[in-house]
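Hi there,

I know you've been waiting on this one. I reran it after we fixed the sequence typo, so this is the corrected version. Both the input and the resulting structure follow.
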Amino acid sequence: MDELKPQPSYSRPKAIIEVDPRLLLCPANVPNTNIAIIGGGIGGVAAAVALHQAGIDAIVYERAPELREVGAGMMLWPNATRVLRDLGLLENVMAHSGPNTHFLVRSSGGKLLMDIALGQFDVPAVCMRRADLLTVLLAALPPDRIRLGCELERLEQGKNNVRLHFKGGLVADHDAAIGADGIRSRVRSELFGASDPIYRGYTVWRGVARYDGLAIRPGSNSETWGAGKRFGILNTGHGTFTWYAAANVPADHVDTPAGRKAELQQMFAAWHEPIPDLIRATDDDQILKNGAYDLAPLPHWGHGLVTMLGDAAHPCTPNLGQGGCMALEDALVLAKCAANGPSLPAAFRRYEALRGRRTKHIQQRSLRMGQIGQWENRLVVAARHLVTSLLPAKLFEHNLRRVYIYET
């Protein structure tokens, strides 16, 4: 067995704003505990921060040679900003995000179908670039807690430890392990066998663009519905906007020779402003493309000294903007359970019991919203628009409030 050799670690970025140093979680009941986290995305790093604040050492193993969050922008609804507040990071996030007080639903011609007010919460809803959120989280974590270039091959559970085997021969022993390695999680495969993500019939393109026109109402994000296509606009602050486009295409859809930008410009050429402007203002090589995938909910997320969080545990389609929010919730609940449980296996099972019902609900609701949004029969689409325009926005506001009021 190779010893755990020093690996490349992430150099802490300059803090955007100084992090509140107070420990916001109870000190751990399990002394000298060291937990491995597989995956250096938002969920994995957030879990390391929450565990660190609870007095539990955690090492994040990331397979990439550099730590960077892939993606454009993301919504942080009140259920997620509440987690960031509890971690002492909300002020940092607010400095690099855009506000959101209303969510507008429009037709492709620009007709307003519904204006959903988010209501009053103890914390705001904001949108920010995923890379900026990762920077905020990393600034709250000692830099030696990140190991780069470590791709997990397999794990073994003993009575009191988990042994991790990485490509290249590296072996590391930890008291427990958390899989935060996404929808194609190696940890999930090790625990439950291989499973292929389910393609839901549409692909999503994302980008970030500057826009200083008048077609976007201040404080309002939006989603526009067409036949088999959607386009969303989210304010990431400081004159920049994240946009996403969804279209019904086969799973093996290949970019056209003209490139992604040209294809999207053709798809959305007749849609209302500022949709064509946002696509035009985005460089072709900065447009990301991902199929909409998920997996059926698992009855449980681990056993013994291993559990999972985020997309490794409960991947969902990107229709409620809750994927990253769920990962942040997972991180804080897991840290609280680990800090206060009688043992790590008991803490992990408690965490899974607390999170299972909520995440399953979000998975199912997001799947359904995506199916409705991607309808392409013209008569059905017209009926959808009519019903949406007639339904009271208060009904949607009430249903969304049930999602946003969650507290860990």
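Quick highlight: Confidence is low (pLDDT under 50) at residues 1-28.

Best,
R. S.
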